[in-house]
Write a structure and sequence with these properties.
Layout: H1 3-17, E1 33-41, H2 46-51, H3 55-63, E2 65-70, H4 79-88, H5 92-95, H6 113-120, E3 126-130, E4 151-154, H7 160-173, E5 179-184, H8 186-194, H9 199-220, E6 228-235, H10 251-254, E7 255-261, E8 269-270, H11 278-286
Parallel strand pairs: 1-5, 1-6, 2-8, 3-4, 3-5
Antiparallel strand pairs: 2-7, 6-7
Length: 303
């Protein structure tokens, strides 16, 4: 077994033994260091998660805030526009992405959340990993996350979400790891191939949940975890038709959600939130000043 695979096996065992690794008690210092990770699950639908075996996502929802929403009617139900909104905190009218070809765009005027965090404090450790390559590479007019991000990686062709989750867990397990983003893609693939009503889609959600558990377990195993305040945000970019596919204007295709735990958000909190609120929520937690150019706003602890 290679060291990388041994690391992954250890994380999987921790995640299996303690779903979400979220109930671990830690003595919080007076001023814990703010940290954040955004976990994007492409094509995931909240109502289908409720029907699947997803203990890690269930724990995050129980311990934080959960919001179900519909994309605005003028926002395409496609990955390019929605991930750009999640990353930048503005809708397509500003960031300019209208399809899965990411160029043209206006990311210079509306940069991604990790780039904003870097510009506020270049000492922050920022990281992005994606299975869908345009988010973190030059494929299809990308990337969404700029070259100012300390490390941005895309899964090699055919590697899939296991590679992306493992690479993210390795990053989060050590170092400062101040602000991170990870995108998992295989739920979307199952939706396209089999439909949102299919057993294969449910199985893909359960696999995504396992990977979420590995990522969260890596955070909980950090030697300095007791001195940190971790905000975890999970979001989806669009839904799927029962028979598969998206890109239209039905409620199923426009279905998105945002889960936020940490950063003072109380357990079981309900919230009204859109995917445009993800970036402002993370930036606010990190202490990055919010400009008036953002469409979204931070999910408040009292929502």
């Amino acid at each position: 077994m290679t060291p990388r695979h041994a690391f992954a096996a250890t994380l999987a065992a921790v995640a299996a033994a303690a779903p979400a690794a979220a109930g671990t008690a830690h003595a919080a210092p007076a001023d814990p260091a703010p940290k954040a990770v955004v976990i994007g699950i492409d094509g995931a639908m909240l109502d289908r998660i409720g029907e699947a075996g997803t203990p890690n996502l269930d724990a995050l929802m129980a311990e934080g805030s959960t919001a179900s929403a519909l994309l605005p009617e003028d926002s395409p139900t496609l990955s390019g526009p929605s991930w750009s909104t999640i990353a930048t905190g503005v809708w397509p009218a500003k960031h300019g992405v209208r399809g899965n070809e990411l160029s043209p765009n206006d990311f210079d005027a509306y940069p991604d959340l990790l780039t904003r965090a870097e510009r506020d404090d270049p000492g922050r450790a920022t990281f992005a990993a994606a299975t869908w390559a345009p988010l973190t590479s030059t494929a299809s007019g990308g990337p969404v996350f700029s070259a100012e991000v300390d490390e941005a990686v895309a899964a090699p062709s055919g590697a899939g979400d296991d590679w992306t989750a493992e690479r993210t867990a390795e990053h989060l397990a050590g170092g400062s790891a101040d602000a991170s983003f990870v995108q998992l893609d295989e739920v979307d693939a199952a939706g396209h191939e089999h439909g949102a009503d299919s057993p294969r889609y449910t199985a893909a959600l359960e696999e995504a949940d396992r990977r979420v558990g590995e990522i969260l377990a890596a955070i909980e195993e950090r030697p300095q975890r007791a001195e940190e305040d971790w905000l975890v945000v999970v979001a989806s970019d669009h839904g799927h038709l029962p028979g598969g596919g998206h890109g239209g204007s039905s409620d199923d295709e426009r279905s998105v959600f945002v889960i936020a735990r940490g950063g003072g958000i109380p357990a079981g909190a309900g919230a009204e939130a859109s995917i445009a609120d993800v970036a402002p929520t993370v930036l606010h937690h990190l202490g990055v000043p919010l400009g008036g150019d953002l469409d979204g706003s931070p999910i408040s602890a009292g929502s």
